[in-house]
Amino acid sequence: MKIYPIISPSADSNTYLLEDEEDEKICIIDPGYTQEHLERIISVLENETGKFGKFPDFIINTHCHYDHIANDEYFADRGIKIFLNEIDGKAILEQNDEKILACFFEMKVPKISNIEFADNDELINLGKTKLKILHTPGHTSGSISVYEEKTKSLFSGDLVFSEGVGRMDLPGGNFEDLKHSIDKILDLNFKTFYPGHGKTGTYGNVKRIRKFI
Ligand SMILES: [Zn+2]
User: Fold this and answer.
1) 52 pLDDT band (50/70/90 cuts)?
2) Hey, CA dihedral for 198, 107, 69, 208, is it positive or negative?
3) Structurally, how many domains does the chain consist of?
4) Rounded to the nearest whole angstrom, what is the distance from the C-alpha of residue 52 to the centroid of ligand 1?
5) What is the CATH number for 102?
6) Cα(117) to centroid of ligand 1, in Å?
7) Which residue positions does the secretion signal occupy (predicted)?
């Protein structure tokens, strides 16, 4: 699996394009919210991946916050499936602004169709690549992380960053859940983690952060 990180310099979430090169399948993790960020994603899809000019096969959202999900609308309107944990997926389907935080970003609540719920421990196939979904609440109650065993990569959303943990004071946030979720990811054999904001980190970073919380 090849990873194309699209790191946000501003308030968008980071986006990660994952490509199973053999089967030419592409998944997007968290497409952000601004038009500018969406254009960067489309440019990578069109010019850098092996699947020139095509759409991704599906999207995974790590959680329901506006800065991670609003650009789903563009892809869902074109028939692309969006995977989320059921709790956060329902918040989007119910257009629950308190949980989505659209108002916080001074934006309208997005209307996103084509949502499919992904369970804890579910394996989603990206060609021959298996993406393992882990329910890792704490930042929101329906947050998930995505693990890929061969490259030992973990996509952690806003659970943990290279220099600390995600906010727990927003609706659905919970400190005890967050600590358990970090213990859960530390049981995995990942080398690199790819967070929802900021730069990538290592297993050692997470281990160190866990000691201080
Ligand atoms: Zn968030």
Assistant:
1) low
2) positive
3) 1
4) 31
5) 3.60.15.10
6) 18
7) none
Give the C-alpha distances (Å, rounded to integers) separating 63 from 69, 70, 83, 135.
8, 11, 10, 10
CA of 139 to the centre of ligand 1 (A): 7
What's the gap in Å between 78 CA and the centre of ligand 1? 25
Q: Is the pLDDT of residue 104 over 90?
A: no
65 exposure class (CB count in 10 Å sphere: 0-12, 13-18, 19+): buried
Taken as a whole, the chain contains a residue count of 213
Of 116, 97, 93, nearest to 106 by C-alpha is 97
Under a CB-based contact definition with an 8 Å cutoff, are residues 33 and 10 in contact? no
Query: Would you give the end-to-end CA distance of the chain in angstroms?
Result: 33
* Each residue's pLDDT tens digit, 120-170: 999 999 999 999 999 999 999 999 999 999 999 999 999 999 999 999 999
Question: For residue 144, how far is its CA from the centre of ligand 1 (angstroms)?
Answer: 11
> How far is the C-alpha of 23 from the C-alpha of 158, rounded, in Å?
30
Ligand 1 centroid to 121 CA: how many Å?
21
Measured in angstroms, how far is the CA atom of residue 158 from the centroid of ligand 1? 5
Residue 120: give the domain boundaries.
2-211
